[in-house]
Amino acid sequence: MKALLGMYSLREAMAQDLEGTLAQAKKLGFDGVELAWYAGHPVEKVREAVRKLGIEVWSCHTDVKEMLADPHKNFSDIVSLGAKYVIICHMFPEERPDGERFEETLAAVRQLEKLAREQYGLTMLYHNHDFDMKLLPDGRRSLDASYTLFPVGGELDTCWVELCGASTVDFLQRYEKRIPLMHIKDYRRSPAPAGWAEPAPGCEFCPLGWGEIDFAAIFAAAERTGVQAVILELDEPGCGKTAQECVEISAKEMMRLLGR
Predict the structure, then answer these.
(1) Which of 43, 186, 210, 235 has its CA 20 to 30 A from that of 243?
(2) What CATH number has the domain bearing residue 245?
(3) Against a cut of 0.90, is the pTM above it?
């Protein structure tokens, strides 16, 4: 499997120093990167930087509303960066399987997936969050409904699956060959904030290997089920470390898990 750095992890640094932050991916041993909204930079500037540094862009995050606003520009920008995957990174409450605009969203995703695949050669994936782990009346998780109905594969986020009491290994086995990318991040449980309404309890994000997830079992299952790349993504720094420190510690652990 390839090891990728999700540049969202260093978004503040990337906004200030695009080339220097992108260069960290190669320095730390990553095979490429995943981008999320380019940290406020014009896509032309990002394209110039990744070409200059020789960094491979595997995937880019966006959402349904952004794609619908200008799908051709969105997809052509992603292709110009050399990416293979376009990721639906979030569903707003009304867009989810139990939301009031789900049928409309479903039709839009089907249209966008067809356009991305047929005209731009892109594979569309869906990135889950904690709300995707909500239990439905039939006993399935909301993510199961999304995988069943949407014509897309998955970019499975290990943190949100495990934190909500589900099993990453089970999801990988159940949807074998449909999850080519996987987000890797670790956590420690903490009291949920007041008013917390999502399925997940509270947590503190932490460097890979410092938390509760059994990544050795997950990496073994990923190898067996066709995952092509694991992506280090840290939503926020934690455990008293800066974002840069969390990425550096996590990179070493990821390379160890990959046998490098």
Answers:
(1) 43
(2) 3.20.20.150
(3) yes
